[in-house]
Design goal:
338 residues; alpha/beta; 434 Repressor (Amino-terminal Domain); Rossmann fold; six-stranded parallel β-sheet; 43% helix; 15% strand
């Protein structure tokens, strides 16, 4: 494919080469180019994938008060809630959030990141989908203000705000063990996600510490209702099915609850259940669900403040913060007496 030039782009979109150049060099206000024209040109530049070497740097000289929020699944209540916090904080500071849903698709995430750099966006808040930081490092090293939330990359300087998933998972598993459970099924999300790996590590360490290593059983492949349903169905069909199920998200929990109901089992009399994530509906279930509460308000507020500091100070941040979760005890776990 022939590489686009400034001349070819200007001819295709019907805007003079001088005007396109001035917009890409952050001089639209100086030459009184309308915001409508700027928006049109930037959209077309992204559409035709025109990438002069200096464009990302120059676009950042033209402040827009727009921040890109990129999440992997906005239907997931956790990401919807955290997006709500960030949007509220942004609005109070005069910023607009442009929300992108990558549908847990790595190719879509990379394309979105590339396009946001070609648009007039001040910074990026990202929940990464993959485990390879190279494409995000390209953004970070280009001095684009960026902060990761929830998921992050180990041994990497990119700033992030997340939950201490290891601690939350360890405490949840320990609680089940102290309640008398040994055969505890763990249903996980995407195995290449840092949140999944840290939660799995917490579960395994707690099981090993209390001598339950023979019962370690981690299954599942994603943070979906279907995953929770299928894995619970399979588990309950075995002769020696678990006495407790630990789900790594509220979406997995819902699938597990459906399978338990179809098997005519009662919670917690027949089987106990505990979940990562805190959602309001959990207190309205019968019985209310014991769960690990992530500090969503703090994650959203701190991530926006960290990004704002980067934008205003024009300096990269390397702050990496893990916030402690809270175990909320309700009535979904049976105390087994020996």
């Amino acid at each position: 494919m022939k590489k686009e030039t400034l001349d070819s782009i200007s001819k295709k979109i019907g805007v003079s080469k001088t005007t396109v150049s001035r917009i890409l060099n952050g001089k639209s206000e100086q030459y009184r180019i309308s915001k409508q024209t700027c928006k049109f040109v930037l959209e077309k530049v992204a559409e035709y994938n025109y990438k002069p070497n200096h464009v990302a740097q120059n676009l950042r000289n033209m402040k827009s008060n727009v921040i890109a929020l990129i999440v992997p699944d906005i239907i997931n209540p956790f990401f919807a809630n955290i997006a709500g916090v960030i949007i509220d904080k942004a609005r109070s500071c005069g910023y607009i959030i442009e929300l992108f849903d990558t549908l847990e698709n790595l190719s879509e995430e990379r394309r979105t990141l590339e396009n946001t750099q070609l648009q007039n966006i001040d910074g990026i808040i990202l929940v990464p989908s993959g485990s390879n930081p190279s494409y995000v490092l390209d953004v970070f090293n280009a001095n684009v203000p960026i902060v990761l939330i929830d998921r992050y990359f180990e041994n990497c300087d990119i700033p992030y705000i997340s939950t201490n998933n290891y601690l939350g998972s360890y405490n949840a598993t320990e609680y089940l063990i102290n309640a008398g459970h040994r055969n505890i099924l763990c249903i996980q999300g995407q195995s290449d996600s840092i949140t999944t790996r840290e939660r799995a590590r917490g579960y395994i360490d707690a099981m090993n510490k209390y001598g339950n290593s023979e019962y370690c059983n981690i299954v599942g492949k994603d943070y979906t209702l279907q995953n929770g349903y299928i894995e619970t169905k399979i588990s309950l069909s075995s002769e020696n099915h678990p006495t407790a199920i630990y789900t790594m998200s509220s979406t997995i929990l819902l699938g597990a609850l459906k399978a338990i109901q179809e098997n005519n089992l009662s919670i917690p009399e027949d089987i106990s259940i505990l979940s990562f994530d805190n959602q309001q509906f959990m207190d309205f279930l019968n019985p209310p669900i014991t769960r690990v509460k992530q500090p969503i308000e703090d994650i959203g507020s701190m991530s926006f403040k960290l990004l704002l500091d980067e934008i205003n100070n024009k300096e990269k941040s390397t702050k990496q913060i893990l916030l402690n979760p809270e175990l909320i005890i309700r009535k979904s776990v049976k105390i087994i007496t020996k």
